[in-house]
Write a structure and sequence with these properties.
The complex is a heterotrimer of chains A (148), B (172) and C (112). With 148 residues, chain A is an all-alpha fold. Chain A has five helices and no strands. The longest helix of chain A is centred in the C-terminal third of the chain and has 25 residues, at 116-140. Chain C has 112 residues and is mostly helical. Chain C has a single domain (2-47, 65-109), classed as Helix Hairpins. Chain C has helices at residues 2-20, 24-45, 68-99, 104-109. Chain C is elongated, with a radius of gyration of 20 Å. Classes of the chains: A mainly alpha (148), B mainly alpha (172), C mainly alpha (112). Chains in contact: A-B, A-C, B-C. Chains B and C meet through helix 1, helix 2, helix 3, helix 4 and helix 5 of B and helix 1, helix 2 and helix 3 of C.
Chain lengths: 148, 172, 112
């Protein structure tokens, strides 16, 4: 990261503009099909975070901060945790904590398997925004060698 | 399992380069190749969920390590009791490997696991949970408490990074 | 059997790097290599010869699947390893800012 203010060269910026939407769409696909094909909430959440980090690495700090706020990411992380725990507490009414109470449906369809797709989405919110916040905080600090 | 052993030898060579390189950037890239070899090993061992997760986590780990490193390493100094320290370390690791070999002989042989609990998961998993991906069924239905604990760990790590990097009065 | 032993050698390479290196970044690299070796060991224990991945398929019935339980545990462990690496990298950046060096022998002598 020689010059984090101005971003990278023109080739990198053009390719980023073309592909970052596809990376975000791929991450959403892996999260939502977590109960049919391999994937799940963790890998999909990390891919979504990587798409936002890609924008920040290619375009520099100043330009990226106009689009992506830190407060929005912090809100998303809390929303993910709240959804997970609320669905678990609702399950206490008909069984135990984190009971899978919705109907199961038929296999290989997108709206099947009870609560598991909703758990996947909540986990992806939490993992994605948590890793994005870690990256923002580590980039904001300026390393300056202290004499002494 | 010849291909599995070739991938393991490749990972060991990558780890040796990562330990011995003088330039810090080269050793971070060598750790990247170890992680990539691990993702291929997960594919050979028929675990596609883990291969996807390991690949993307490896990319993020390399980004964070490159951010934290300065490019030159310290000069290697043979100060005082260098030979004695290295000799003791090698003796310790050799004893550990011998104990490990005797323990590994008592495990079930490679390729025939015991699978007492997994028989229930494999036969009843589709009926009881309705998912076709059994690893997701185990992570999010049979063992959902562990997922809640893992979300807590990520939250604590974010809190820790913010608390360490916070600076009162520094211009951002 | 030889796959288990190669995995143990990978773990001991990471252990040597933690014990004998003076640079803080090399110690972090050693911790990462040890973590990869342990995750690989878990998945090696649960492998069945000529098994299939633990995912049902719409057009065939699969009778021999590998063990899904170690794979579920390792999936959590991979993300935890990332969180730990990020946290100690952040602490290392702060140490460099305060002391000006990554050398662990010099960090012990400077005070305040």
């Amino acid at each position: 990261m020689e010059d984090p203010k101005k971003g990278m060269s023109l080739i990198v910026k053009t390719i980023t503009r073309l592909t970052v939407g596809l990376i975000l769409l791929f991450g959403i696909y892996i999260v939502s099909h977590g109960h049919i094909s391999p994937g799940g909430g963790f890998a999909g959440g990390v891919i979504i975070a990587l798409s936002f980090i890609h924008i920040m690495l290619a375009f520099g700090k100043e330009t990226a901060f106009k689009k992506l706020n830190q407060n929005i990411a912090s809100c998303f992380e809390s929303i993910g945790a709240i959804i997970f725990i609320t669905l678990g507490i609702i399950g206490i009414g008909s069984g135990y904590f984190l009971y899978n109470f919705m109907q199961k449906g038929e296999p290989f369809k997108l709206f099947s398997a009870g609560l598991i797709p909703l758990y996947n989405i909540a986990i992806s919110f939490k993992v994605g925004s948590g890793l994005f916040i870690i990256f923002i905080i580590m980039v904001l600090l300026k390393i300056s060698k202290k004499e002494g | 399992m010849l291909d599995l052993q070739i991938i393991l030898v490749f990972m060991i060579i990558g780890a040796l380069i990562a330990v011995k390189a003088k330039d810090l950037l080269s050793s971070v890239i060598a750790v990247g190749t170890v992680g990539l070899g691990l993702s291929l090993a997960f594919l050979i061992l028929k675990a596609p969920d883990l291969a996807i997760a390991q690949l993307v986590v490896e990319i993020l780990c390399i980004i964070i390590l490159i951010r934290a490193t300065i490019r030159k390493d310290l000069p290697f100094s043979t100060s005082g009791r260098w030979f004695f320290n290295t000799f003791i370390t090698f003796v310790f690791i050799f004893i550990f490997l011998i104990f490990g070999y005797f323990c590994l002989r008592d495990l079930p042989s490679f390729g025939n696991p015991v699978m007492k609990i997994a028989h229930t998961f494999l036969s009843q998993g589709l009926k009881q949970t309705g998912t076709t991906n059994l690893v997701s069924a185990v992570v999010l239905d049979y063992r959902a408490y562990d997922t809640l604990g893992e979300a807590t760990i990520l939250f604590t790590a974010v809190m820790g990074v913010i608390a360490v990097m916070r600076s009162i009065g520094r211009k951002k | 059997m030889s796959a288990y032993f190669l995995c143990l050698i990978l773990f001991s390479i990471g252990l040597y790097c933690i014990l004998r290196k003076r640079n803080l970044i090399k110690i972090i690299i050693g911790i990462a290599i040890s973590e990869y070796a342990i995750n690989l060991f878990f998945v090696l224990v649960g492998y069945r010869m000529h098994g299939r991945a633990p995912i049902h398929s719409p057009d065939q019935t699969i009778v021999n699947m590998v063990d899904p339980l170690p794979q579920a545990l390792v999936l959590t462990s991979i993300v935890i390893g990332l969180a730990v690496t990020a946290l100690i990298a952040a602490i290392a950046m702060r140490i460099y800012e305060k002391y000006g060096t990554f050398d662990i022998t010099r960090i012990r002598r400077l005070k305040g």
